[in-house]
Amino acid sequence: MSREIIKEGKTVNEAIDLACAQLGVTRDTTDFEILELPKKAFLGLKNTMAKVKVVVVEESEKPAQTCKKEDKQKAEPKRKTPIKKENFKLVADDLTNYLKKILENFGITEADFESELTEKTHIVHIKIENNPNLDLFEKNNGELIMALQHMGNVYLNKRYSETKFPRIILNLNNCVEKREKRIEELVRDAAKVVLKTRISSSLKPMSSYERMLVHTVVATLPRIGSNSIGEGINRRVILFAKD
User: Mean pLDDT for each consecutive 10-residue tract of the chain (243 residues)?
Assistant: First the structure.
């Protein structure tokens, strides 16, 4: 069973501290969701307070598992089998041909494809390069790349319904490296502002992979923390000062 509370404060950090104090816990034993960010009205009139929901999950209060083994087996869906390394080339070639047909609609008929399977995280990496027209996919914050990745994921899941395919990552003309560098610079600049002003900073909505990159960069920065808020395409990362 979990305990939760919604609290308001002048800043996100103040709201979290007030909630933790009322619950009698420390911040590192909680998870929180930012419901509203503080807003300053014109001339300081009717300022909007920050609102957060803080949740505490206590291990000792988790319900015991009492269901029978046969009932549990009936309730669990059939698990998909991860793709084997020796079968990966066949699947990668199939996916490559599918992506080539889509790219032809954009006038891209020649490009170099390279496929790799990361077994630990079970991610399919597809590198496409040596065609300048691939750069158009980077426009609009990479929306075309994300759409192409989504189509590839749907294709694999339908084509190989018994195989586990969490997602694919497309790297067009080294756009992944470029994006990672831009995100790192963005996070470091935002962190400097947060430490200077003591005001939390909300980044633009990002994909799950980009949010992971943000959290990775934040982990290397002293006195800066991060948390994801929002749902679906509006999910984004908040940076805040730990102290």
Answer: 79 77 73 70 64 69 48 53 71 86 84 77 78 74 75 81 70 81 92 92 84 88 89 86 84
CB distance 198 to 241 below 8 Å: yes
Asked whether the whole model's pTM tops 0.70, one would answer no
The candidate with the shortest Cα–Cα distance to 54, out of 10, 82, 79, 22, is 22
> In sequence order, what DSSP letters do the residues of the chain get, joined into one string?
-EEEEEEEESSHHHHHHHHHHHHT--GGGEEEEEEE--BPPGGGTTPBPEEEEEEEE-GGGSPP----HHHHHHHSPPPPEEPPGGGHHHHHHHHHHHHHHHHHTTT----EEEEEEETTTTEEEEEEES-GGGGGGGHHHHHHHHHHHHHHHHHHHHHTTTEE--EEEEEETTHHHHHHHHHHHHHHHHHHHHHHH---EEPPP--HHHHHHHHHHHTTSTTEEEEEESSGGG-EEEEEE--
Residues 88 and 117 sit within 8 Å (Cβ to Cβ): yes
Which amino acid appears at position 212 of this protein? Answer: M
